[in-house]
Amino acid sequence: MNYADPRDANYIASANQSHASALAADYTALGVQLERRGIKIDEITRAVANFKVAIPSWGVGTGGTRFGRFPGQGEPRNVFEKLEDCAVIHRLTGATPTVSLHLPWDRTDDYKGLREHGAALGLGFDAMNSNTFQDQVGQALSYKYGSLTHTDPAVRAQAVAHNIDCIKAGALLGSRALTVWIGDGANFPGQSHLGRAFERYLESTASIYKALPEDWRMFIEHKMYEPAFYATVIQDWGSSLMAAQTLGPKAFCLVDLGHHAPNVNIEMIVARLVHAQRLGGFHFNDSKYGDDDLDAGSIEPFRLFLVFNELVEAELAKAPNFRPAHMLDQSHNVTDPIESLMTSAIELQRAYAQALIVERPKLHEYRIGNDVLMAAQTLKRGFTTDVTPILAQARVSKGAAIDPVGAYRASGYRAKCGEMRPGKQSLGGGIV
Ligand code: RM4
Ligand code: MN
Ligand code: MN
Predict the structure, then answer these.
(1) What pLDDT digit, counting tens, does each position of 79-94 carry?
(2) Those residues with Cβ within 8 angstroms of residue 10's Cβ, 6 or more apart along the chain or in another chain
(3) Confidence check: pLDDT of 430 > 80
(4) Of 44, 160, 201, 287, which shows the fewest CB atoms inside 10 Å?
(5) How far apart are the CA of 419 and the centre of ligand 3, in A?
(6) Residue-level pLDDT at 335
(7) What is the mean pLDDT of residues 402-426?
(8) Which of 101, 106, 143, 223 to mutate to test the pocket of ligand 1 (most atoms within 8 A of CB)?
(9) Which atom of ligand 1 is found nearest the CA of 258?
(10) DSSP readout, 72-129?
């Protein structure tokens, strides 16, 4: 099969040729439609072009469930190869200039070299993620019964030290945030003292907080359940917010969309965290039942739109301390991870564009006048408008692809990875 580097500007330009005239026609038509609503399409396109979301390093490998894993072709074998794939995503979408690393999965002896490798590929580094939800080979003490909240102070100290290592590695890479998600909790009523476990969490995270460099932020990520099935220490935004407020001004809450019970009003949580000035960022994904890692916008695009609607409101209101980090956090079990991540980044831009074109002055009037139906219709009009040409035009403005998945498939990149990355692939279950 023919191979062309999908990161090459000339390749992308030639792939765009066959789509250019259709895009021009569609963009013009949409511009006319939006003009009638008093909206300038080019302003929306510029805002979309400036939208950025980080790629999770763990997302470029094929995921799995606890029942098994079906490896994909040519998966990256180390963090350097992960960055190669992330660069493909970024070049084709123009939306993903940073990568979020997970230690120890991405541990290397050469962070300086890794940073240079990223820079050569046009990539920087977003939040570092610590991992105390698994044991590692050779690790002194086990996290089986918890990490930052373990009853044994020695285990807590080990987990704190790991988080501080993540900060040190991140500092070498130019990262400026640490995301802390722990699986600590209980599987049985009676197993742990609910109040004391939280107190131990606060004590441990205070030690991590102290090690944060001046310009760093700490993101506290809540999750309702899994791996703890009865009670999780940081199970909801209330616990997360309490922890952030206790720790200090550099601590913020991170909302992973998949970490809530079905039907929870996540946009409401977003609004509250904006108000509290503690919205640190997002792990975007989608979920239907208990899965927390389906592709963003694949199940409930309207909910994603409503989250972005709150973000646009906060942006327009110039809400204080509002600069949420955007990150994807997905597991791709049955799709090519590069294709899923590109599509998800675009779905976020779609939700953002839909929220940007909502006729806000009208919406405001309808709200004030209690015209419920028209308020709902006005909001929904943003959602039901097909903003695809805006997204494509934003990509063109950045030298990216009009049709990222099409250009990627035609390049033969995946087959090439299959040749270039031989090696044993694990078939066991697991999250990555
Ligand atoms: C968790 C959580 C964390 C992620 C791990 C892999 O469910 O979403 O953010 O680091 O999965
Ligand atoms: Mn997450
Ligand atoms: Mn998750």
Answers:
(1) 999 999 999 999 999 9
(2) none
(3) no
(4) 287
(5) 32
(6) 98
(7) 93
(8) 223
(9) 8
(10) -TT---SHHHHHHHHHHHHHHHS---EEE-BTTTT--S-HHHHHHHHHHTT-EE--EE
